[in-house]
Amino acid sequence: MELLVGAWRGERQLFLQCSAPHAWRGSCHQPSVSLQPPLLCTSPLSHSTGSDSGVSDSEESVFSGLEDSGSDSSEDDDEGNEEGEDGALSDEGHSGMEKTTEEQVQDGSPGPRTEVASARIGDEYAEDSSDEEDIRNTVGNVPLEWYDNFPHVGYDLDGRRIYKPLRTRDELDQFLDKMDDPDYWRTVQDPMTGQDLRLTDEQVALVRRLQSGQFGDMGFNPYEPAVDFFSGDVMIHPVTNRPADKRSFIPSLVEKEKVSRMVHAIKMGWIQPHRPRDPTPSFYDLWAQEDPNAVLGRHKMHVPAPKLALPGHAESYNPPPEYLLSEEERLVWEQQEPGERKLSFLPRKFPSLRAVPAYGRFIQERFERCLDLYLCPRQRKMRVNVDPEDLIPKLPRPRDLQPFPTCQALVYRGHSDLVRCLSVSPGGQWLVSGSDDGSLRFWEVATARCVRTVPVGGVVKSVAWNPSPAVCLVAAAVEDSVLLLNPALGDRLVAGSTDQLLSAFVPPEEPPLQPARWLEASEEERQVGLRLRVCHSKPVTQVTWHGRGDYLAVVLATQGHTQVLIHQLSRRRSQSPFRRSHGQVQRVAFHPARPFLLVASQRSVRLYHLLRQELTKKLMPNCKWVSSLAVHPAGDNVICGSYDSKLVWFDLDLSTKPYRMLRHHKKALRAVAFHPQYPLFASGSDDGSVIVCHGMVYNDLLQNPLLVPVKVLKGHALTRDLGVLDVVFHPTQPWVFSSGADGTIRLFT
Questions:
Q1: Distance in angstroms (rounded) separating the CA atoms of residues 469 and 495
Q2: How far is CA 32 from the centre of its chain?
Q3: Pseudo-torsion of CA 175, 180, 183, 187, nearest 10°?
Q4: Domains, the chain, ranges and CATH?
Q5: What is the model's pLDDT at position 88?
Q6: E strand intervals along 146-220
Q7: Measured torsion, CA atoms of residues 196, 198, 202, 205, in degrees rounded to the nearest 10
Q8: CA distance linking residue 650 with residue 705, whole number of Å
Q9: Composition bias, kind Acidic residues: at what positions (predicted)?
Q10: Which of 747, 735, 734, 546 is nearest to 631 (CA)?
Q11: pLDDT higher for 25 or 282?
Q12: Whole-number Å distance between alpha carbons of 209 and 216
């Protein structure tokens, strides 16, 4: 109701203005006709994207009660008919006008609204009686935003709604008008009336000047010459003849008081006079230390950014020849990933500094440096001022740890294939070796002479000499059998007593069920030294003796709990000590003094008590694959080698974790061994070297073992990527034997 009253007041004032003689003829001749056509009978939607009433086409169609029917088929023929039809589309209150319009459309005669609309389109300022704004929209001084959500824009003098123009033109019609109308580019829409206005040449020029940042007035010159008020020429008469003030030649009392205060402050020391600056320039390193007075420097937890590495010779524009890459190195560099390259650029050589082009990765490297400074976290670490020399353990000199093997003394040649295993007699006079050429060879240690060769008809995986000095017996693992041989070397009495011991066995009446079969050798086999054959169901990978010489442990290449078997020589019995498996067994070893059995799987070493039949300890070597095992003669320390080139020392009294891990070899370890008497242990690897270390174990339990590498022994040639396959010490001398893939056995003394 308030909107209606406000609109009526504005329209009443407009009506009174129109009652003047000069305005009645132009604007108030036909009030019902002159007020509606600008909004009801306007031309279609403006082509410009200028201001609209804030309502979309679909909303305005809903407000007017019409559906958007697109372009009319008769608009090309008769523009007046189209406007008459559009003007007739109003609410039910316009029934009289609807009838009149329909009759005019049927008769084909143009109605008064059509004439007025066409006249107004021809001259938009014909009825304008005000210099401020277009007064054809007689809604009064009411903001047009009030009508954004309504289908009309105001009321006329008769109180009828003035409806917004219909949006019946789609983008296709606008495109056709854009192509056909040459003045389309200079046509804009009037937000007050909704009509399309064509800009004149002067208005277009004004818009272009404003868009280019120029002044609107073409006659305005922003660069006019300035007029100086005071001339630079000497004039006869002064500018002013005002007499000088008295204060210009009388001392000032205020300044006198200020000076006296400053003198008193200087005497009291409140004001310090300026000291003369040192004229000599000071040079300092900008990056040596950050300014402590800066904001970041005063921050207690500020961590300065790490400095970039200084450029080297490779970054030079004229680098030395050894820094330039060859063609093969350049191809390898291009095929590598960016993160794997040692240099992020290719060193190049230029004749002079003027010929050096711009660096292509400059912006990228600066950006990455900014990201590192911005995103990488920095942490302050509390460091203790410790002398680096104090961190190095005080190891004794190798010359103080003698004796240990230092040089190669003898080479035992005779095998035609790689030598897998070695064993030395208890007295140290004889040496036995097993090879892939299917033979066992017995050597005299002192002369490197092969005294006997025993063909076994298969690959010898492991060989072990009985440690008892009262028995002359050798066990060899060949395929799925363990061969027990009497080489008959050395003392004949010992060899004879061994045969008597083996022949004194009386088999029981009912043979027990055993996991292995004991077979006597034939007469032909006894001629070459074979006495017994222990047959298994699977291939044998290792054989080892107990310290007393009566028990024998073997490892089978199978899955399950029958991987480890223990044979008793005197009673010719075999047993499987385990009821379940804990992985693939690699090596076994007897404890030298106590009833313990050590079983090494791929990832762990288990220590079993044979009498109690229980697991005592489980050692974790932290290796990927254990390859070899050895027990210290005292029994309290164990070493094991692995295929990932690690040697691990365990102290059984200390912990189940490694006491020390040595990484001296470059490739996989194949064998480790302790010396029976001297504090020495050795390891053989696929890199072709044997490393001898000093390993002193003290009787004092409070003192840890001392491990010192003392010598690297080389001599074996690499064959099929294999180096040293077995290592064994002499029982009484500080000598070490090694067998290699090159088919030789070497003695280092």
A1: 11
A2: 79
A3: -30
A4: 398-503+514-748 (2.130.10.10)
A5: 35
A6: 152-155, 161-163, 187-189, 196-198
A7: 80
A8: 10
A9: 69-89, 124-134
A10: 546
A11: 282
A12: 6
- CA–CA gap between residue 104 and residue 204 (Å, rounded): 40
DSSP class of residue 218 equals T
pLDDT in tens, 4-17: 444 445 544 444 44
Tokens of 242: 């005002």
Total count of residues recorded for the chain: 749
Work out the angle at residue 281's Cα, subtended by the Cα atoms of residues 277 and 286, and round it to the nearest 5 degrees: 115
Read off the tokens for 701. Answer: 């339990």
CB distance 669 to 643 below 8 Å: yes
Pairwise CA distance, residues 680 & 724, whole Å: 18
- What was the pLDDT predicted at 75? 39
Whole-number pLDDT of residue 675: 92
Count CB neighbours of 127 within 10 A. 20
- Residues 135 and 197: their CA atoms lie apart, in Å, by 16
The DSSP element (H or E) to which 87 belongs, if any, is helix 79-88
Distance of alpha carbon 666 from alpha carbon 651, whole angstroms:
25
Q: Does residue 726 contact residue 716 with C-beta atoms inside 8 Å?
A: no
- What pLDDT is stored for residue 730 in this prediction? 92
611: left (phi over 0), alpha (psi -120 to 50) or beta: alpha
pTM: 0.51
- The encoded tokens of residue 551 equal 């028990």
For 9, 342, 459, 600, the CA distances from 17, given in Å and listed in that order, are 13, 91, 128, 116
Cα 197 from Cα 75, distance rounded (Å):
20
* Calpha distance 567→459 (Å, rounded): 22
CA gap 707, 395 in Å, rounded: 9
Amino acid at 286: L
Angstrom distance (rounded) from CA 32 to CA 40:
12
CB burial class (10 A; 0-12, 13-18, 19+) of residue 555?
Answer: buried
Q: How far apart are CA 580 and CA 561, in angstroms?
A: 4
150 — alpha (psi -120 to 50), left (phi > 0) or beta?
Answer: beta
Residue type for position 415: H
Work out the mean pLDDT of the chain and round it to a whole number: 78
Between 693 and 583, the higher pLDDT residue: 693
Task: Give yes or no for a contact between 619 and 631, defined as CB atoms under 8 angstroms apart.
Answer: no
Integer Cα distance of 559 and 640 in angstroms: 22
Give the integer Cα–Cα distance in Å for 658 and 476. Answer: 32
Residue 60 · residue 164 · CB < 8 Å = yes
Q: Is the pLDDT of residue 205 over 80?
A: yes
How far is the C-alpha of 705 from the C-alpha of 393, rounded, in Å?
13
Structure tokens given for 573: 């019995």
Section 578-602 average pLDDT: 88
In angstroms, the CA 627 to CA 672 distance is 9
Query: Who contacts 668 (Cβ-Cβ below 8 Å, separation ≥6)?
Result: 627, 642, 643, 644, 645, 685, 686
Q: Which amino acid is at 306?
A: P
Q: DSSP assignment of 443-472, as one string?
A: EETTTTEEEEEEE-SS-EEEEEE-S-TT--
**Count of other CB atoms within 10 angstroms of residue 516:** 23
Helix locations, 504-572, DSSP H: 523-527
pLDDT tens digit sequence for 78-112 = 433 433 334 333 343 343 434 433 443 344 444 43
Number of H helices, E strands in the chain: 17, 33
Sign of the alpha-carbon dihedral angle for 598, 599, 604, 608: negative
Q: Using the predicted structure, report yes or no on whether residue 697 has a pLDDT greater than 50.
A: yes
Is residue 40 scored above 80 in pLDDT?
A: no
Amino acid identity, position 119: A
The alpha-helical segments, DSSP class H, found in 218-326 are 253-268, 295-298
Neighbours of 432 (CB within 10 A): 25
